[in-house]
Amino acid sequence: MKIGFIGLGKMGGNMVKRLLRGGHEVAIWNRSREKTDEIAKDGATPTYTVKDLVAALPSPRRVWVMVPSGDATEAMIDELIPLLAKGDTIIDGGNSNFHDTIRRHEKLAGHGIHFIDAGTSGGVWGLENGYCMMVGGDEAPVKAMEPIFLTLAPKDGYMHCGASGAGHYVKMVHNGIEYGLMQAYAEGFEILAKSRYKVDLAQVSDLWMQGSVVRSWLLELAGRAFRAEGNELKSIKGWVADSGEGRWTVQEAIDLDVPAPLITLSLLTRFRSRQEDSYSAKVLAALRNQFGGHAVKPE
């Protein structure tokens, strides 16, 4: 199958390489020409405008968009609409909000263009291990795209989750769970690091991978980090970003009256990690000083 691919970042570039290895033809475009030329060395067809990318595809054309969620995705879809025809398909493989996905599906349906949402998980390891594909959209265009999804995914790693937005919805909740898992590991390893025992945390990570109920790929990655950086992780600043999915998961839990304290607190902990000094902690210290005469530490 031939497909156009827009966005050759950390995941997009490797996804193109996996598709090429699977025997697909891929026309590529990226805002930076250098990245396009780099991936073209693996056998992809380089194009240097979105219009040229569309022109390089046979009808019905299928274009995968792998750019940052929000305004970048919206702008790219708007740019593609006048270049495509009825029966063509756009696949959004980014971490878009499922509300935006449903709206875009309806908008593109008015132009006769199919729209598929493909929640994609696998990170920088997906090239070798495959990408977990959580797909939403109408049955017929999704079925037509299955050769692509099956190539990208490992065995049993692809699912048509339901109607438009379902793929991004499942990926949203997936990332919310990821926040909670990562936070639990982080807290556990901090307890070990500050304990009276000088335990090698890389060895503990490897140990827990052997039959333990907490074994996981995230734990395997923790072991890699500790082996590279040591117990103290001295070269890493404890500043943690969030890309939106955790917030959306918490908001959805609120909207559905679902108690989700672990995911919520893991999100709030990320917010705290970005503060050099916590204003709320200053207020707490001031209050303790006022009512109990407890000592405060000066700036």
If you had to describe this structure to a student in words, what would you say it looks like?
It is a single chain. The chain is an alpha/beta fold and 299 residues long. It has helices at residues 12-21, 33-40, 50-55, 71-80, 98-109, 126-129, 139-144, 146-152, 166-193, 201-208, 217-229, 245-255, 261-273, 279-292; strands spanning 2-6, 25-29, 45-46, 62-65, 89-92, 114-121, 132-136, 158-162. The chain has an eight-stranded mixed sheet with strand order 3-2-1-4-5-6-7-8, sandwiched between helices. α9 crosses α12 and α9 (166-193) crosses α13 (261-273). The longest helix has 28 residues, at 166-193. The model has no long low-confidence stretch (mean pLDDT 96).
Features:
14 helices; globular; 299 residues; eight-stranded mixed β-sheet; 8 strands; alpha/beta; single chain
SSE blueprint:
Blueprint (H helix, E strand, L loop, with lengths): L1 E5 L5 H10 L3 E5 L3 H8 L4 E2 L3 H6 L6 E4 L5 H10 L8 E4 L5 H12 L4 E8 L4 H4 L2 E5 L2 H6 L1 H7 L5 E5 L3 H28 L7 H8 L8 H13 L15 H11 L5 H13 L5 H14 L7
Parallel strand pairs: 1-2, 1-4, 2-3, 4-5, 5-6, 7-8
Antiparallel strand pairs: 6-7
Strand content: 5-15%
Quote the average pLDDT: 96
Strand order of the largest sheet: 3-2-1-4-5-6-7-8
Total beta strand runs: 8
What is the C-alpha radius of gyration, as a whole number of Å? 23 Å
Instruction: Figure out the total of helices.
Output: 14
What pattern of helices and strands is seen along the backbone?
A: EHEHEHEHEHEHEHHEHHHHHH
- State the share of residues found in helices, binned by percent: 40-55%
Sheet/helix structural class: alpha/beta
Q: Let me know the largest β-sheet.
A: 8 strands, mixed
The global form is: globular
Which segments are poorly predicted (pLDDT under 50) over 5 or more consecutive residues?
Answer: none
State the distance separating the first and last CA atoms. Answer: 63 Å
